[in-house]
Design brief:
This protein has about 425 residues and is mainly alpha-helical. The protein has 16 helices and four strands. Helix 7 packs parallel to helix 9 and helix 9 packs across helix 13.
Length: about 425
């Protein structure tokens, strides 16, 4: 151990304690407001639904607390506990090729982490989601999803890791620039690939058949100047009772996807308003801005890794007995999140700004009243808490709290 070991443990403990403290604040705040519906929602959401949302959020927050503790412990065991060293010795003993042994090391840690987190996922799905009436997946479907996720991790992740480790080892001092270009190219490729090839492995996507709704959406597209590859309904009810809608794809491959549960919950006016909000992100160039920021953050990350992989203290401080590119990349992926915990409110602030802007755009394309009605229904049917702790929300929520968002939409209603 060295000074960096102390810094690592300090930030890990600080990050964990911050998350646990925020979770506790969230639970206390929700319990204090559990027995009365907020004024903005009186007459729209009954007390029983409000209390269900409170209890559901409390259950999820308790599970998040456990996950945080487990995750922190696993990280220490992997690094200072020597598990990465053991796995590295095993992969090198059986795989002579340096790059392939590095790929095997990283993949083995990812798969091991997946299985460590699996009991939490099982409890979340078959206990919490089941208790509150949201789980619709079967044990067979759950197991199938797990194997499919691991298979995709191997199929997609293996060539990417091989390419990254090759670049790290063979492209000289400024390898991190080439690694950045490779990663950005891969991200764009996956954005194109996921809607048409990967997402259909998990869910069924069918073209929207409601002619009246389709016509209404096409008119909205024309008003917004938006072109889409298609409008699809996803069988989200196959796994969950939650409803949602989203844009996916890039360029000419853009498509709009509605959960079948959302189609069943909202009327035509409300669906149009929700879609107008999503189109607001497109018209306000939020997706482009996010990609630009992500591009530069990724570049900065690789530049930082380029410096760290040359520093012995980085490896020594995390308990490594070997120094190589695969271990450097793996440590960077595992450790970086504990140092970025404290800047999450900055990211959340910009995301909330985007949500307000999208709501403002939606109010010019559809009636704000319809978006309010849709949101209230979604809050109720998804059991979303109406009373999150403000500080907790600033760290964890990309969308404004329910009351704040509804108040903002009310201000957009024409007198």
């Amino acid at each position: 151990m060295n000074e960096f070991s102390i810094i690592f443990l300090f930030f890990l403990a600080s990050s964990m304690l911050l998350k646990l403290w925020l979770n506790r604040r969230q639970m206390i705040h929700i319990i204090l407001h559990r027995d009365s519906v907020p004024k903005d929602f009186e007459g729209k959401i009954d007390l029983a639904s409000h209390q269900k949302a409170a209890d559901y959020t409390l259950a999820k927050t308790r599970m998040a607390t456990l996950s945080t503790i487990i995750g922190s412990g696993v990280l220490v065991i992997l690094t200072l506990g020597g598990i990465i060293n053991i796995l590295s010795s095993i992969t090198q003993a059986y795989i002579a090729h340096d790059i392939w042994s590095g790929v095997a090391l990283i993949m083995s840690v990812f798969i091991l982490s997946h299985f460590i987190e699996l009991p939490v996922s099982v409890y979340q799905t078959f206990k919490i989601e089941q208790k509150f009436g949201f789980n619709r997946t079967t044990a067979r479907q759950f197991i199938k999803d797990q194997f499919l996720q691991i298979a995709l991790m191997l199929i997609i992740g293996t060539p990417l890791l091989y390419a990254l480790l090759t670049v790290m080892g063979q492209m000289g001092e400024y390898w991190w620039v080439y690694a950045w270009l490779l990663t950005i190219s891969f991200t764009f490729f996956m954005t194109w690939l996921v809607p048409t090839f990967i997402a259909p492995l998990f869910n069924k996507f069918t073209p929207l058949e409601d002619d009246a709704l389709k016509s209404r959406i096409q008119q909205l597209f024309e008003r917004c100047g938006f072109n889409s590859k298609g409008i699809y309904v996803m069988d989200g009810s196959k796994r969950s009772g939650h409803g949602n809608a989203y844009f996916t794809g890039i360029g000419n491959n853009k498509r709009i996807v509605f959960y079948d549960t959302l189609i069943e919950s909202l009327n035509t006016d409300e669906i149009e308003a929700v879609l107008a909000h999503e189109l607001g992100h497109f018209k306000c160039k939020h997706i482009t801005k996010h990609m630009v920021v992500s591009t530069f953050v990724t570049l900065a990350g690789f530049a930082l890794l380029g410096w760290l992989k040359q520093e012995n203290w980085f490896f020594d401080g995390l308990g490594m007995v070997q120094i190589n590119d695969a271990i450097a990349l793996l440590l960077f992926i595992l450790v970086l999140p504990i140092f970025t915990t404290f800047i999450q409110p900055i990211s959340s602030r910009f995301q909330r700004k985007f949500e307000f802007e999208a709501d403002e755009f939606a109010s010019t394309m559809a009636k704000p009243e319809h978006l309010i009605q849709a949101l209230v229904k979604l809050y109720r049917e998804n059991a979303s808490t109406l009373t999150p702790d403000p500080l907790y929300s600033s760290f964890h929520h990309s969308h404004p709290p329910a009351g704040v968002r509804i108040d903002h939409l009310k201000s957009l209603i024409s007198p």
